[in-house]
Amino acid sequence: MSQSGAVRRSEPADIRATLNYLFRTERKPYTYTFAPPPGVPERYGEVNTVPGIVIRDGRVENPSLDEQGFQIQPHATAVTDFYDERQIADVYYPEIEQLLKSATGAEKIVIFDHTIRSVPKFQAGVKGMREPVRRVHNDYTAASGRRRVRDHLDPAEAEERLRHRFLEVNVWRPITGPLEDAPLALCDARTIRDEDLIASDLIYPDKVGETYSVSYNPEHRWYYFPKMRTDEAVLIKCFDSDEGAKARFTAHTAFDDPATPPHPLPRESIEVRALAFLPPL
Fold it and tell me: What's the pTM value of the predicted model, to 2 decimals?
């Protein structure tokens, strides 16, 4: 895989911030993606709020998909309105497909969904808008990562693809910038132990998915990319089928940056989720 093309900064902007983990309990955590039944909480999980965590300036160390599990890329887009679903499908998805082929060396990319997070539109009640997730998590587990292939390919191709290495990569970018509010913190995947990962249900109207919540480990090494621009994207490897890979699961979370100005530009961002099938060895 290629190294990122990030521009290094001469002065690091390391900070300390509070991150929200979960405590491990006997009960499996869950989150509803829609209004739950009457009397049922929207989510369950005992939050462990950990202050004073060092979050390093990723522009200085220039992390990569192969090593840390994430990287930043310069990436201009022809999209003029990220709230136009036609532009997303006709313009942005093909752009992301080419970006991921170049970054991973994949022979096939399957983009299967995207999420737009807009604080002002969510607060205004606009349908389909979501808030930033301020809890440490990874989008797939060892089980659900493989299940995604069967969800999005026909059965014969899915079984063949599952015999070879594939990745699930999120491509995240701010759609207004520079990013000042609720930036994204990313954990060096090499510092995450199996026992830190807590399988959690993600409940949809028609199915139950599975993600990882994360328990606190002082060995976790965190990064962010200060003041991200709209012509930059972060690639996050959320699953790697290769059990020997240095980076398999890349935990991440939005957080409150203590350097945020008093009246920041509200967070608006898009994340695209894709399967990247590497050529058979």
Answer: 0.93
